[in-house]
Amino acid sequence: MAQAEIAYRYLSGTGVTVDERQAFHWFQRAAAEEYAPAQAALAYLFLNGRGAQRDEQEALRWLSRAAQHGFAPAQADLGFWYARGFVVQRDSKEALRWIRRAAEQDFSPAEFLLGTMYETGFASSRDPVEAGRWYRKAAEAGYAAAQTNLGILYERGDGVSKDLAEAARWYKRAAEQGDGSGCANLARIYANGVGVKTDYESAYFWTIAAQYRESAMADPLPQSFVQGLSQRIPESERARVAAEAQDWIRAHPLPAPEQRFVNALAAVSGLSAGRVAP
Q1: For 136-151, what is each residue's pLDDT tens digit?
Q2: Which residue in 27, 205, 246, 259 is a FRET match for 211, CA 20 to 30 A apart?
Q3: How many domains does the chain have?
Q4: What's the pLDDT at 163?
Q5: What is the pTM of this model?
């Protein structure tokens, strides 16, 4: 819808000066016409107090309307809110219901969330086979966090046949997309020769990459691992590998805080122009 596209341009500064009030105005007009992506975007603006006063209940109202229209990103977000008890009362069954509805539309973030729910037994008994099935769907679609978690299942033999080479393959795919946990797991298996030939230089490279992404990781690499690894590589080689890692980091920059907000809104509205295994 043209109104929503105009709103997104005002929010992102695409071809116009950034103006959050104008963005809110145009999203509101599109939402009133029952355009689900705009309803989801409006919910996010209310939630963050952007373009209007922060109002969690209005955010919930618009997100729920978008979800009821069958908009998968809104369904996944609403399910996540129920899972966390955020704005709504915590309800694992409602969380599972909404996340499943989004996952059944091939929405990769929801497939990943559903996989984690089955892996942990969040809303029912633990089922690593189902977890692996949903992780695989998201992983094959290129969703990096699911690639990492699928690798963990293969490394452990949890719900799938243990296959260290397959674990390494999925960690590598996740790491190459810049997933912090994928980088950390790839560093670990290169250092320990798990599913791959031991390669301390590659381990050091991915350790540096993982440290760059550490803020987004649930379980960063322990400092003892980093120190022990650096001692295994001659100083001259450490400098070369570190320089190569810095080149990789420059090619995979983290978004600035303001851009993260725009990216997040784009993800929830569809309007865009982790962990380490023991």
Answers
A1: 999 999 999 999 999 9
A2: 259
A3: 1
A4: 98
A5: 0.89
